[in-house]
Amino acid sequence: MADVLRKSLSQLSAGISTGSLRAEELLNAAVSNHQRSGGSLGAYIVWDPDRGLEQARVADASQANGTPAGSLRGLPISVKDLFGVANYPTYAGTRKPLPVEWCTEGPVVRQLRRQQAVIAGKTHSVEFAFGGLGVNPHWRTPRNPWDPEHHRVPGGSSSGAGVSLCAGSAVLALGTDTAGSVRIPASMTGNVGLKTSIGRWNTTGIVPLSPSLDSVGLLTRTVDDAIFAFLALDRELAKDRRCEPVSDAELYGLRIGLSDGVLWSDCSPGVTESITIAVDELVGAGARKIALELPEIEKVLPVFRKGGLAGVELQTFLKNSLPDWIPLLDPKIEQRMQDAATLTACEYLERVSLFRTLGLGIRQRLRSVDILVSPAVPLTAPTMVEIDDLGRYRECNLLSLRNTSFVNCLGLCAVTLPVGLDAAGIPVGMQLVASHGQDVRLLSIARTVERCLGDSRERCGEPPVRCHPVAGAG
Fold first, then answer.
1. Which of 165, 181, 319, 329 has the greatest number of beta carbons closer than 10 A?
2. Residue 167 has what DSSP assignment?
3. Catalytic positions, written as ranges
4. Which residues span the domain enclosing 118?
């Protein structure tokens, strides 16, 4: 990675604001990093350095003229191909571009524009974001940069987001999270992934999967970077000075909630071990472990496995808005969506009510701890060969989503941060979960945890990004 892009977001922003760095310099470094891997990781569905260069020059001219912008000015950022971005097509992982109205920029992208961030490109997504492994047969499945020999999945549905960070073609990635679509790719690629509370950030201008569960998220290289980006984008903090400032939480006496239930079962070799070592290090630094009974998770997961709310809400959206795209669906997506076809209105409303009731229950239980900790993803990122069979794909997909999906279903917020490597040498993410609306407190605790344990580079090392080419990679 070009040395300049190894700096933190705050350092890059300070360099832009003082004139010691230029946006064009950062964009050129991002392009160089992309070219160094030959584009072989396949992070982007649209990679347009010329358009990025135009944005960078505008940001530099604005800075030179003293025009106010924002703390993200000049920083190269990748955007998931569900977000509408002016003059870019939106595919949402499908075979053909969506109608032009889905290229309209919503509030989150407009915030990037107001701050003169540089959009480096649009990253790959699972078709309509309906999958946790990152697979897309219409275009290509990006390569997980942690395995130079085998094509392993990068996690999804924000499949290109974490890859763009590892390759150094972006320093911040926008994603969406409906059941783990930010946290899974962050975990599998050794990055930090933030799933904000549902409703915290407006999802207008983003192709929906499940409006009841969709949330905007961030992928960054460190928690400090996640906090920097969160503060730059969060309009609620900007307008409400009563919000708790992001500051270090006290590690001594920090109450870490741990459940002996399903979140720790069927983990690949090295996953449980990495999380346990990290928790023990926190306890050694003064934190306390508290055993939690969480029956709400045990009750919500069987409903999620039957399709939850996402399957029927996606089907409704496609029938009403994009009927011509239904015959073109990947069979893996179509079958999962059709599983929800027989769900009655009464059953749907029962699920909504159940999620709401269980959500209230788990929030009460979480009051006894500062944070709930679990593995973010129980399984090692599988190879494409391992999930070629449809049955095996479904099995791995559901397992990849198991530990993250309950957060969405029960209305919580969460962050994952890398704490080690599993037996296959793939990063392991530790998930920190907090109640709805506790995003600021969550990030504060996550920063304290990262400063105690070390960041991704210190825990995992560097990914071997020089991988074999992906056919047609861009």
1. 181
2. H
3. 80, 157, 181
4. 3-460
